[in-house]
Design a protein that fits this description.
10 helices
Length: about 280
């Protein structure tokens, strides 16, 4: 666990355990989606097709698990909040997507027992986690120590070029994520493989969460706080690369959406690797 500076606000235990719990839950979701993408009709809360969508979502869940563990291991709120707010945004948006498409979830009595259990667990998690995160965040913020007058808020420490790259990535992810949430079918025409309304909005929620993390990361005044976001970015790109190796035939090559998808992945990998290298050589 990283140590907090004397001026930092310690991470309160309820927030730490909430992040550990969230990491465990997203790991389980990623396990089904990434390892068993062809079994979502029997083992997941809703049927995810094509398999490339399942492994894409699974990779996102697994990379987010690393972000949440890193946030939970942080000694200070100033470091952990880079994990907290993207998770809150994603879970709140996914709750909305779930309620909007509840008819697509495995709530019918004729579904498999495992799928039924997974569905009710999904509903409970996305109903409880955003509320719990908001309440615990409020308690956490109220516990913040007033900074001494001699302590001045740090300016963003990342190089200008890296900050501009992160701003560009954040802008693309946020704008396209919002488009997928608001107008899923027209926006999905720019995605490199077919998406339904539900899967388009599920992907959109992830893009907004990832874009939020990138936007927060470029404003950090401490390289140590960037490390969890950087690690998540690198893990996300590696896992998406494995997903493409397994089900990349779902993409229409060499279409503009496919080229754009790979280009954004490479940009995320470069930004994550760059920030990670800087965080270890501060």
């Amino acid at each position: 666990m990283t140590s907090a500076s004397p001026e930092a606000t310690p991470l309160i235990p309820p927030m730490r355990w909430l992040l550990y719990l969230a990491a465990f839950l997203v790991f389980l979701a990623g396990l089904v989606l990434f390892v068993f993408p062809l079994r979502t009709a029997e083992w997941f809360a809703w049927t995810v097709n094509p398999p490339m969508t399942a492994v894409f979502l699974g990779a996102a869940y697994w990379s987010a698990a690393g972000l949440e563990v890193a946030g939970a291991r942080s000694a200070s709120w100033e470091s952990a909040r880079l994990a907290v707010w993207p998770v809150f945004v994603f879970t709140a948006l996914t709750l909305g997507v779930t309620l909007l498409h509840l008819d697509r979830f495995h709530l019918s009595p004729d579904t498999s027992t495992l799928a039924l259990v997974a569905t009710w667990a999904w509903l409970a998690i996305y109903a409880i986690v955003p509320v719990a995160m908001l309440v615990i965040s409020w308690i956490q913020i109220r516990s913040r120590r007033p900074a001494p007058r001699s302590v001045v808020a740090g300016w963003p420490v990342l190089p200008r070029a890296l900050r501009l790259l992160l701003v560009g990535i954040a802008g693309i992810l946020l704008l396209y994520g919002v488009a997928l949430l608001a107008v899923p079918i027209p926006a999905a025409a720019w995605w490199p493989w077919p998406l339904s309304e539900l899967t388009a909005r599920a992907v959109g929620a992830w893009l907004v969460g990832l874009g939020w993390a990138a936007a927060q990361g470029q404003m950090s005044g401490d390289l140590r706080t960037v490390r969890p976001v950087a690690l998540t970015s690198v893990a996300f790109v590696i896992l998406q690369g494995l997903a493409l190796l397994r089900h990349g035939d779902a993409l229409a090559w060499p279409s503009q959406p496919a080229i754009g998808f790979v280009s954004v992945l490479l940009a995320i990998g470069v930004a994550g690797g760059w920030a990670l290298a800087l965080s270890f050589h501060r």
